[in-house]
TrEMBL record:
Species this protein is from: Nicotiana tabacum
UniProt keywords, alphabetically: Membrane, Transmembrane, Transmembrane helix
Name of the protein this chain belongs to: Phospholipid-transporting ATPase 2-like
Residues annotated as domain P-type ATPase A: 99-162
Pfam family, one: E1-E2_ATPase
tRNA processing keyword on record: no
SUPFAM superfamilies, per the entry: Calcium ATPase, transduction domain A, Calcium ATPase, transmembrane domain M
Name of the gene: LOC107785383
Membrane-traversing stretches: 44-61
P-type ATPase N-terminal domain ranges (all copies): 5-70
Gene3D superfamilies found in the cross-reference section: Calcium-transporting ATPase, cytoplasmic transduction domain A (2.70.150.10)
Amino acid sequence: MKRYVYIDDDDLSNNVYCDNRISNRKYTVWNFLPKNLWEQFSRFMNQYFLLIACLQLWSLITPVNPASTWGPLIFIFAVSATKEAWDDYNRYLSDKKANEKEVWVVRKGTRKHIQAQDICVGNIVWLRENDEVPCDLVLIGTSDPQGLCYVETAALDGETDLKTRVVASACMGIDSELLHKIKGVIECPIPDKDIRRFDANMRLFPPFLDNDVCPLTIKNTILQSCYLRNTEWACGVAVYTGKFSYEEEIE
């Protein structure tokens, strides 16, 4: 299956796909207790100790005081639930920080400051050196005359060596002052877990190119949670956002 991303066109692509809000939380306020209990009782040992505790409620079966089993069992469950709640709260804070981070985007030919969670598919996103990439982008411009930029991908693959990325050939040589005026369409596959493959095509509309097809590979992309390094600035078209980004897929 294919998805069609129309560059900086609110009517054709931005409202079709999800926004860039991310959520790594396991629980909500309403489902925490039942979901956590289900997860704890899905473990065989917890089921075993629960069975023993229930049997001790009948004095005909055992003379042991049920409190001697129920007390430690409830304590262990409470400690485990508290730890899960604390970890989930920290995930919430991390998500909130990422969602509310401010980024520069181009919408309807105008650059504006918005929160990362409000990025839509098709928006042109501008990055500065050492910025974290807020969503998956197809690279259309950099400060390098040869159209190169360098990204740190340790958050995705654990590799600390910088990777080289290159501007799509259709956008090579376009002046930085004209990048916010680009119009076109990117035909790309639906996102999957393979972060080393991206087979897509780009067509720019006149006056930039007259619908010539430009092939795209993973070398033309910078993915969410990577960092821009040793490059003054770079910009790209948002193709996968939120839960459909590569980082969310591999999690």
